[in-house]
Amino acid sequence: MEGFFKLISYYQIQSEPAYCGLATLAMVLNALAIDPERKWKGPWRWFDDSMLDCCLPLEKVKDSGISLSKVACLANCNGADVEAFHANESTIDNFRNYLLTSTSSENFHMIVSYHRAYLKQTGSGHFSPIGGYNAAKDMVLILDVARFKYPPHWVPLTLLWDAMNTVDESTGPGLYRGFMLLSRLQRAPSILYTLSCRYDGWDTTTEYLAKKIPLLLSSEEISNIQVLLSVIFTSAPVKLINFISWVAEVRKQEDGSEFISEEEWGRLVIKEEILSQVRDTELFKHITRWLSSVSSCIQNAVMDGYDSLDKIASEVCCQGAHILCGEVNSSNSTCPVTAQLRSSDYDNGESVSVVSGKVFMKDSESNVEILVPCCQSQSNVLYDSGSNNSNNEHPSVADGLTVLLLALPPDTWDCLKDARLRKEFSGIVSTSNLSELLQQEVRTIWQDRYTAFAKAVAFPCG
User: Fold this and answer.
1) CATH of region 4-184
2) Active site residues
3) Lower Cβ count inside 10 Å, N or C end of the chain?
4) CA separation for the pair 62, 22 (Å, rounded)
């Protein structure tokens, strides 16, 4: 019960009958001392269930609840490291081992999704955090966030497992309930993941990456890597390139301050290191070569102007303002047409690129900024990313495309007919030689965004 007192300090009641998953997550995020990076009320930065709307609109949660995978999405978006398990993909012994890990540490907390009927309680699907484990009696302490119905209570582990090992029909056919283990990320969360989970075109992009690419590769006669890249990118969804925003961090402009905090600086340093490592890969060099060789009409279709820092800033500032102001699904807004690029000093004497933009929503306006990491340009890079700075470059189309391909599962390339090319390209996209930092970025993208879809389709290599 090492984590009990931290959890009980943030024990809260769900504000809506279907907000059990949101209230549970808010409680755990506060217990992990994760900064929400936005204000709750007044000057206070605090997680509340009404703030957790980036992966699913609150109105939809209020109407039909939320699935285990969406709670995992929300947890990752808001700075938690998450391991989620559907009961049909795990075992009771695995659950018990993770339970021991979480209840024996202040740095881990477990959330369970279960069916109340198995515990002889009123209601159906429910989420709550786990407050402790009695190994001698094999009993689990549930800190029920529906405090108007039930106080904290102990249940047999085997009974709770049966309650988790059920299908959650209300949030999707064939989806099982289960459990997840949360801890505080030791680095900034994957920004590609953070932005893409809020983007309504992600499902189309996921389907293309996980299903249509293997079909294309198995049906085409592909002789070399440049032809391979052409097949992949010229058939891609129009908005695929929106995901190059993966390194942009949005913040509210507060009190007229132009300085960045130590925490923000630390995240920028990590992102710049990841960006640098992406550009050191052989895959990045092949993609930049392809971009520089294709016709202008194809290049325009693929890039759609997204190597303009002003355009990226305009899109990201607008999206960020929606998120920070709780207007994720509002269409009643005007995005900034232009953005102001400036430098912000940090107390070590260095400066970073900051893009400021003003967004008008309804009867109010919101001043937001994005912090833009830079990467030292390389003389052997064939593609000009469009940066105005000859020494440093902001993230480009090539960076985003490189990361997306690295995140695809290795068996994607088994569909290539040419054995020599299959071996060569599999080596180029292999993550085994990447740094641990870049491997973690790639794993996060695949595990959290592609896996759920990929389980529903077999890679159709013919």
Assistant:
1) 3.90.70.30
2) 20, 126, 144
3) C
4) 10
